[in-house]
Design a protein that fits this description.
- It is a single chain.
- The protein is α/β, with parallel strands linked by helices and about 170 residues long.
- It has one domain: Response regulator (Rossmann fold, 3-Layer(aba) Sandwich), CATH 3.40.50.2300.
- Helix content is about 35%, strand content about 15%.
- It contains five helices and four strands; from the N terminus they run βαβαβαβαα.
- Strands 2-1-3-4 form a four-stranded parallel β-sheet.
- α1 crosses α4.
């Protein structure tokens, strides 16, 4: 059995909040089993300041965080992904690049904290809530017996994780 980590790509439209948070959480919690990345179909070009605040509050170094296009991961020399998860409804509806290696895909939609309205505290809460939902789903992923599941069963489990009511 290979000890190579599973490469996971989290996709969102802007790559400024949810996908960055998911990348950070899986890289923090996934140990040597997972290596996470994030990208967007139409990247904002900067990470939302509340995303950075949230990650710092979780004691996660934000040096990795940058808003980038999914094109960066579709060309030569890019990591080959085992899993690709869309975390926003818009990205799930877009035509994605053809990913080498035929990764497993699933939609894990989470409300956009960057679209939250209200007081600053309420907006920060929206980011914390998105992180909580993503963390729950990532925990379920990490606890799957991936190596012992066939592709159909694995796909079913990944879809069920996305349907989880957090």
């Amino acid at each position: 059995m290979s000890n190579t980590p599973y490469n996971v790509l989290f996709l969102c439209t802007g790559n400024s909040a949810r996908s960055i948070i998911a990348e950070a959480l899986l890289n923090r919690d996934g140990g040597e089993r997972f290596r996470a990345f994030s990208a967007g179909s139409q990247p904002k070009g900067e990470v939302h300041p509340f995303t950075l605040d949230l990650l710092r509050s979780l004691k996660i170094d934000t040096g990795f965080a940058r808003s980038k296009s999914w094109d960066e991961f579709a060309g030569p020399g890019a990591p080959e992904f085992d899993f690709i998860f869309t975390v926003c409804d818009n990205a799930a509806e877009e035509v994605c690049p053809v990913w080498p290696g035929h990764p497993m895909t699933a939609h894990w939609g989470v409300p956009d904290p960057a679209a939250a309205e209200g007081t600053e505290a309420e907006r920060h809460y929206a980011f914390a809530e998105a992180a909580r939902q993503l963390s729950n789903r990532i925990s379920l992923l990490m606890n799957l017996p991936i190596k012992s599941l066939d592709r159909l069963a694995l796909k079913s489990h990944l879809d069920e994780i996305g349907d989880t009511k957090d």
